[in-house]
Design brief:
Number of helices: 10
Strand order of the largest sheet: 4-3-1-2-5
Shape: globular
Largest sheet: 5 strands, mixed
Radius of gyration: 18 Å
Helix content: 40-55%
Length: 214
């Protein structure tokens, strides 16, 4: 076993960390501790005062507090998947697209979801997010996944956020002209990988029996 993963099932950051771990690691590689955000365990807060999931505490006591760091850790433990998911000739493009997702798109997503808390309308924030959706749809017009006909780190990292964006107004998204993006999203939603990482677990307690993942 490589360490202990604190996670929350519906958080897109935690989701993409689980996707990478499940894609790259052997069965039962980490202990999974499901967190309830309103009742975070002290053991997690002790190792990660920023108090956000995911958090991976490795057996050497080092702590990974960022989802992308956990994804790269998963890659580093599977050389063949490292070359497949993060090929040298695409690394800069993959990194740039993920940065767009985590920056401008995540800002638009948060404001779109909770538009009543902000100054502009839901439509305004949705259109801001559509700039990124346009980019993804264009990439997906060329091949099955974002950068080729094979899955890349970008697909795993970005999919949970597009899923969340689409769920804000499902009716609008289903009627949108993003044919390529909708096909890509639906393929991920129906994939055995995604279904496997979305199993429901009880809130972790100190005296609970360990749950192993993937």
């Amino acid at each position: 076993m490589l360490g202990v993963l604190y996670s929350f099932r519906r958080c897109p950051y935690a989701m993409r960390a689980r996707l990478a771990l499940a894609y790259c690691l052997n069965a039962n590689s980490v202990e999974l501790r499901e967190v309830v955000l309103k009742d975070k365990p002290q053991t997690m807060l002790d190792i990660s005062p920023k108090a956000t999931v995911p958090v991976l505490q490795l057996n050497n006591e080092s702590v990974l507090e960022e989802s992308l760091d956990i994804m790269h850790f998963a890659l580093s433990n599977n050389q063949s998947q490292l070359l497949s998911l993060y090929p040298l000739n695409l690394q800069s493009q993959i990194d740039a697209l993920i940065a767009m997702n985590d920056g401008e798109f995540k800002w638009a997503l948060d404001h779109y979801k909770y538009a009543d808390r902000y100054e502009e309308t839901e439509l305004y924030y949705r259109e801001k997010g559509q700039v990124f959706l346009d980019t993804l749809n264009r990439l997906l017009s060329q091949h099955e996944y974002l950068f080729s006909n094979d899955v890349s780190l970008a697909d795993l990292a970005i999919f949970p956020f597009v899923r969340q964006f689409a769920h804000v107004d499902k009716n609008w998204f289903e009627k949108s002209e993003y044919a390529n993006l909708k096909k890509w999203l639906n393929n991920w939603l129906e994939s055995p990988l995604f279904i496997s990482i979305m199993n429901k677990y009880k809130q972790w307690q100190v005296d609970a029996e360990p749950v192993y993942f993937p």
